[in-house]
Amino acid sequence: MEITYRNALLEDLPKIISIYNSTIPGRLVTADLVAVNVSEKTEWFHQHQSNTRPLWVAEFQNETIAWISFTSFYGRPAYDGTAEISLYIDEQYRCKGIGKKILAHAIQQSKTLLIHTLLGFIFEQNKASIALFKKAGFHEWGHLPDIALLDEKYCSLKIFGLKIN
User: Fold this and answer.
1) CA nearest to 66, candidates 22, 120, 112
2) Sequence-ordered list of residues with C-beta below 8 angstroms from that of 16, at least 6 positions apart, any chain
3) pTM of model > 0.85
4) Contact (Cβ atoms closer than 8 angstroms) between residue 32 and residue 44
5) Cα pseudo-dihedral 63, 59, 136, 33, rounded to 10
6) CATH number for the 4-163 domain, one of 3.40.50.150, 3.10.20.740, 3.40.630.30, 3.40.50.2020?
7) Domain residue spans of the chain
8) Mean pLDDT of all residues in the chain?
9) In this structure, are strands 139-150 and 55-60 parallel, antiparallel, or unpaired?
10) Per-residue DSSP letters for the chain?
11) Of 87, 98, 116, 127, which has the fewest Cβ atoms less than 10 A away?
12) Lowest-confidence range among 10-14, 96-100, 155-159?
């Protein structure tokens, strides 16, 4: 499967939001409890910078099948080389090895973005994402027990890190 990547455009935001919202009901991927809309995420979209903290769409046969974003960690200058990575895949393309390809591409491009450390924040119950990140070389660097409340159930958050060589 040939996947292409490009910087997201504002007209991609509805599809990006649709993919994101599809993960909310499963309570595995995000701490949002209700669907978000384009107007709520427009500022977030504009915070991404293509040369250092991009928001990319991944396409297959000219269709957006996933998106990936890099977000600055903690907002202090000493952390400029550290970024949180987020990866969301359209429902019909999940569990087909696409996440592995997209994550590998993001890791490979990290040096050009001046990123030396990638972080992934993953709910403990999200076994598929944990396995994906571990296979890509990430290691568990932190565990925040019972930090989120999803449907009256406390959930722990794991922090995975990868040093970029």
Assistant:
1) 22
2) 8, 41, 45, 55, 57, 64, 67, 88
3) yes
4) no
5) -50
6) 3.40.630.30
7) 4-163
8) 96
9) unpaired
10) ---EEEE--GGGHHHHHHHHHTTTTTTSS-S--S---HHHHHHHHHT-BTTTB-EEEEEETTEEEEEEEEEESTT-GGGTTEEEEEEEE-GGGTTSSHHHHHHHHHHHHTGGGT-SEEEEEEETT-HHHHHHHHHTT-EEEEEEEEEEEETTEEEEEEEEEEE--
11) 127
12) 96-100
pLDDT at 75: 86
Please determine, for residue 131, whether its predicted confidence score (pLDDT) is greater than 90. Answer: yes
Structure tokens at 15: 């599809």
Q: Are 13 and 64 in contact (CB under 8 A)?
A: no
